[in-house]
Amino acid sequence: MKLGVLFSGGKDSTYAAFVEKQKGNELLCLISLFSQNPDSYMFHTPSIKRVKEQAKVMNLPIQISKTKGIKEKELKDLENAISLAKEKYNLDGIITGALHSNYQATRIQKICDKLKLKCLNPLWHKDEIKYLQELIKNKFKIIIVAIAAYPLNESWLGRIIDKQFIEDTKKLKDKYKIHPAGEGGEFETLVLNCPLFNQELKLKNKQISGKNNSWKMEVELK
């Protein structure tokens, strides 16, 4: 199938694209939405502008649309973006990185049904620990760019998802019910390297802001 990727630059959308390519599907484009609402229900916002550099090292065209991020109304912006990509690239379907969010999955499915597109969710209900282990096994280099849950703090920013990260999040799950893969918005990620990239992206500059248990790291890449 000829597929477009709903792409945030984080681990879920990137790994979902990798999984579908491994199945023999063709990735034709990335579709990203830049939301003005940092607390958007639908869209990843930390370091979202880095998708441009990621698209370059993936050798894929990227279609960027903007949204004010108003709950429910942002879905129309998403529909318009997917519709434009369908027509431009003659897509058969859309890939999403949905893990457990029924809110996101059902709304994207509804849009795809309306536009007569397949909606592929290769990570849906995947065991979170096995998923993190797969990321490492498949040589995904991923850093944390935002946190928003107790007891996470500023020290988590910039951490790489590795074996120690998995062990630490296992403990947080047991004690504080934090989702190890950040599905509840506990943390957000940025992919610096993976098999879909032709070279690794490096951090050039970073700017950290926040307080208490809510922090974000805006980065520049080289």
Description:
This protein has 222 residues and is an alpha/beta fold. 33% of the residues lie in helices and 27% in strands. The chain is built from 6 helices and 9 strands. It has helices at residues 11-22, 51-58, 73-89, 102-114, 128-137, 163-176; strands spanning 2-6, 26-35, 62-67, 93-95, 118-120, 141-148, 187-193, 203-211, 214-221. It has a 5-stranded parallel beta sheet with strand order 3-2-1-4-5, sandwiched between helices. Strands 7-6-9-8 form a 4-stranded antiparallel beta sheet, with no helix packed on it. Helix 3 crosses helix 4. The chain is globular and about 45 Å long. 38% of the residues are buried. The model has no long low-confidence stretch (mean pLDDT 93).
Calculate the terminal CA-CA distance, rounded to whole Å.
33 Å
Helix vs. strand class: alpha/beta
Reading off the top of the CATH hierarchy, the class of the largest domain is best stated as Alpha Beta
| Fraction in helix | 25-40%
Strand order of the largest sheet: 3-2-1-4-5
Low-confidence stretches: none
Mean pLDDT value: 93
Task: Tell me what the CATH architecture of the largest domain is.
Answer: 3-Layer(aba) Sandwich
- How many H/I helical runs? 6
* CATH topology tier name of the largest domain: Rossmann fold
**Largest sheet data:** 5 strands, parallel
Number of strands: 9
**Overall number of domains:** 2
Strand content: 25-35%
Coarse shape: globular
Q: What is the alpha-carbon Rg in Å?
A: 16 Å
H/E topology pattern: EHEHEHEHEHEHEEE
How would you name the CATH homologous superfamily of the largest domain?
Answer: HUPs
